[in-house]
Amino acid sequence: MKSVLGDRKTIAILLGPALLVYTLVILVPVVWSFGYTFFKGNALEGFEFNGINNFTRLFTDPDVQAALGFTVKYALLLTILQVVFGYGLALLYTFVLKKSSAIIRTLVFFPVVVPTVAIALLYQKLFQSAPKDGLVNELLVNVGLGSVDWLGSGTTAFIVIVIMDVWRSMGFYGVLLYTGLLDIPEDIIESARIDGARGFSLFKNIVLPMSLPILYSSIIFSINGTIKVFDSVFALTGGGPGNETTPLTLYMYRTAFAFSDYGYGSTIALVLSIMCLIVTALIFRGARRDNTI
Amino acid sequence: MTTAPRSRRLRRPVVAALAAVGIGTMILSGCAAGGSSSEPTKLTYLKNTENTNTEPVFNELAENQCKTENTALPLEVSSIPQADLDSQIQLLASQNALPVMFAAAGTPAEGAKLDKAGKLLNFETELEKLGVLDDIEPAAISTIKNLYGGNFNFLPFQFNIEGIFYNKTMFAERGIEEPQTYDELVEVASQFEADGITPFTASGEQGWPITRLISSYLFRDLGPDALQKVADGDAKLTDPEYVAAAQAIADLGAAGYFDDNIASLDIDSSYNELLTGKAAMMYMGTWFLESANDPEKNTVGVDNIGFMPFPAVEGGKGSIDQYPANVGLPQTFGADTYTPKVADWLKCITENYGQVSLEQSGAISGFKSKEPVTDLPALTVDVQDRIAGSTESVLWFEALFNAKAGQDSSKNASLLVTGQLTPEDFMKLLQTDLDAG
What we know:
Helix content of chain A: over 70%
Shape of chain A: flat
Largest interface: A-B, 41 and 49 residues
Largest sheet of chain B: 6 strands, mixed
Order of helices and strands of chain A: HHEEHHHHHHHHHHHH
Oligomer: heterodimer
Mean pLDDT of chain A: 91
Number of helices of chain A: 14
Largest sheet of chain A: 2 strands, antiparallel
Order of helices and strands of chain B: HEHHEHEHHHEHHEHHHHEHEEEHHEHH
CATH topology of chain A: MetI-like fold
Distance between the termini of chain B: 65 Å
Number of domains of chain B: 2
Radius of gyration of chain A: 24 Å
Number of strands of chain B: 10
Number of strands of chain A: 2
Number of helices of chain B: 18
CATH superfamily of the largest domain in chain B: Periplasmic binding protein-like II
CATH superfamily of chain A: MetI-like
CATH architecture of chain A: Orthogonal Bundle
Strand content of chain B: 5-15%
Radius of gyration of chain B: 25 Å
Number of domains of chain A: 1
């Protein structure tokens, strides 16, 4: 095996096709997109050189600041909630339901495989306020509270997006973290129990430290997914009301394709890429530091 | 294993590299070239989902008047939401993959761009060749030329004026006459509000039914060139007299004169509020005639819906008989897919659309009707008379805006009337978009 992998030709044959596809599908569009950041225009009207104007515009554009603020707020909150709820589910599967958890796992995982648009439509109906109240408003009215226009204000629309996305994704994190918990050797837990560890102390001293690697993976998955949120927001609120629930991805899409400015859209895409890069680097750095303890 | 001659070792990577470059070039060229505009085998028609007027007329034409053309080139209709239309059309245009016929130009500026890029058919030339140019109302051609870059590049499947539709019985029961001034309109609204009836229904989800009220106020107050001045840079939306218009409409919202939960109300539900007697008034274009004339949708009675112009603003420079005029969200034909079979369809449409549209739903288009249509609903006749009697028209709020200002205007209108955005901030947002170009 060592002799095979020591042969450069073999390495080239094994890696070449994947590297070629990666280059064509990822690197070329990234470089191409970076090139657009110095231009203004679109495929229909043509492009003209715009210097660094797209970059200076970034700092004065209130929409970018609002979209960035929404993206960061959404990514942080959703990452915390997804991982915490997912971890809670994983603990439930492992230590409470044990072998009978299969049906619960399947049910909780089910929203993960349902198309986002279908879920968004479902939530639109659940939180509907006009022309008729949806289920949530009906409940509120029945307990003596007033009807709320959930998708009609930025704050409540944000709450609905978060509830929907947590519901949609916690099953995935539940299963991901469950596999991590299954990897904790049973004899270690047994030894801890013999030593008197019970309940929270067992969790704090044994389960949590031993599931940290998979927790890190979950956080990386989650934050990189949430920072690039697009489909759920697009389908549920369209970024509205106003631009109150518009993440950077949606603003980038609109700038490029609806406002016909590929250059500025690419500049926003670059900001998003840098954000993802920074977050990934920070998380990996943190994970590495932890491993050296 | 690694003792092959040096020349052979070198040749293989070179061949592999060349192959990789070749494959890459093919893939990239495939991406870059996009689709081709080969001869169409169907009359593909992409329209906005919100447009429910044209498809029934086209189906009727395909089955009867244009049956021969439909056999040669079958009609195929598809729809996408209006909010996604401009981006979809632009994407298709950049790939040379536009449908034969399509709706376009959420804002006139986008329509002018398509025309400038040579993507649209010049109907003045082509209809002249087909000998059917006279079948189009000159006023409709003039409106299109004024809006979309100077050419007759869109077809007037609708020819609308805009104003306020109202429930005649509700007005009569209270002894209310059509308000002539804005103050009277507000007074009327307060009476309905006191009686527990929604004075104005408007779709906040769409937004533009609200911004139309702002532009109407502006045209009445500052004159028909109010928004042209903004487009020319001679005035700004943040000027106090412009902010006053946004303030007037925000005040309607603050007084509770719009629907509850207006921000989430879609356009069909808004129509429904008026047509089922839950609301007293609705600002809308005359494309609404199709719904108002439909007894299944209009449960308050086809004869019970009236139409009046937006009233005058006291001391204002505008006149009550200056109606906003447009051709709806316009539809056009692609220049690259225009073949003899498409031309046959175009000729048949031009000759018959006006007649079928008027007969089928009482909807007024910019196509002349071959024979006089009798038994039209009174509302349609009233609107026809108003169009005939109107000497000057005005535009709508977003007509001269760029795409971003147009979208921000519609998306933020509901925030304005629900008090979540001040009139100053609303106008500032739009002016910033306009200044960005």
